[in-house]
Amino acid sequence: WIRILINSNMTTINSLSRQPTKLDYASPTQFKFSIQKLPKVEYFCTSVNVPGIELSSGGIQGTMLKDIPLPGNKLTYEPLQMRFLVDENLENFQEIHGWLVGLGYPRDHTEFQNLLASGTDRFPGRGTAVKTEPGKDRNATADTGGTYSDATLTVLSSKNNAQVEIRFRDVYPTGLTGLQYDQQAGDVDYLTATVSFQYLVYDFASVGSSTTTVTTS
Asked: 120: pLDDT confidence band, cut at 50, 70 and 90?
């Protein structure tokens, strides 16, 4: 039994009660990634990251002695990036390309309307309600379900059992790398592409749970 004394308040911590319960290391190959709007892409996924997170600075509190740094209250998330093998007919590449075209609608506004229409199966009934309040638009706000998607990164154990889920909310693509064909290539190195996503937040959850968890020590 070990006691650790911290600062002048003489805080006592029982280190034996703070030992980890899982001693296995995380393997970079044990994962499964799913994204609702891109079924053909998720099947060929080869790598995906857990984005970094950074807290903004809350400024400095000046004192007669050392200035005291204060924590901020806004989080910045790094982009979610996924690499995937491109199938022979470029179907998974076209899934992401079509999503980006719908968001950017380079030729016509109907491209964005088609993107919104593709989300009606996720949010049935939205955009059809009628408002009766005077001075307001008669129809409800248009559904934006097609703009975003949800994604889940499932961490697996060494025996391929699901251990924990990392859930990304309101995901949308921001970039897709190109494809390079080359008849002079010596070996067959199958084409891959990388797609970058932005999202609202990501949370950790127990497998199959309807709620997320926040763990602090």
From this structure: low
Continuous segment of H or E residues that includes residue 193: strand 192-198
Kindly indicate the confidence band of residue 129, based on its pLDDT and cuts at 50, 70 and 90.
very low
Under the banding of pLDDT at 50, 70 and 90, the label for residue 117 is: confident
User: Considering all CA atoms of the chain, what is the largest pairwise distance in Å, rounded to the nearest integer?
Assistant: 71
Confidence of residue 19 (pLDDT cuts 50, 70, 90): confident
* C-alpha to C-alpha distance for 191 and 125, rounded to whole angstroms: 40
- Taking the C-alpha atoms of residue 112 and residue 103, their distance in angstroms, rounded to an integer, is 6
CA-to-CA distance for 141 and 146, rounded, in angstroms? 14
Q: Return the exposure string of 131-143: e unless at least 16 CB atoms fall within 10 Å of the residue's CB, then b.
A: eeeeeeeeeeeeb
Closest CA to 115 of 79, 139, 152, 149: 149
In the block, tokens 């079924």 appear at 39
- CA 148/CA 74 separation, integer angstroms: 22
